[in-house]
Amino acid sequence: MDNSAIEEMFQGLGPVTIKRMFGGKGVYHLGRIVAVEVRGEMLLKADEKSAPEFAAAGATQWAYDGRKGNPVKMPYWSIPDEAYDDPDIMAKWVRLAYEAALRSE
Q: Given CA atoms 29, 32, 34, 35 in this order, what sign does their dihedral have?
């Protein structure tokens, strides 16, 4: 995903900074990481408060195989499909990601 597409995706939140990280990109708003791009997929930050809302919308949590083959769940979730067609819905999800970032400090 190119940086202009990422900036457009997050326009409902405000300006973002995009940094390369572990083969993907990190997306920051006001110095806090709100999303990561992994293998071409944008994943939004969530926490115990917002994760149920992501799950209810059909999003999936990012996990990778740990050293012993056990899945390691990360605090990032896929973006619900409906958000890609509606900037207002996308704005809701990116704001939830920023709120989770604020709570994680």
A: positive
Give pLDDT, residue 1: 86
DSSP-assigned letters across all residues of 76-104: EEEPPGGGGG-HHHHHHHHHHHHHHHHHT
What per-residue string of b and e applies to 12-24 under the rule 16 or more CB within 10 Å gives b? bbeebebeeeeeb
Q: How far is CA 21 from CA 8, 39, 51, 83, 92, in A?
A: 20, 12, 23, 25, 25
Q: Are 43 and 76 in contact (CB under 8 A)?
A: yes
The pair of three-digit structure tokens given for residue 54, joined into one six-digit string = 């992501």
45-85 pLDDT, tens digit each: 999 999 999 999 999 999 988 888 889 999 999 999 999 99
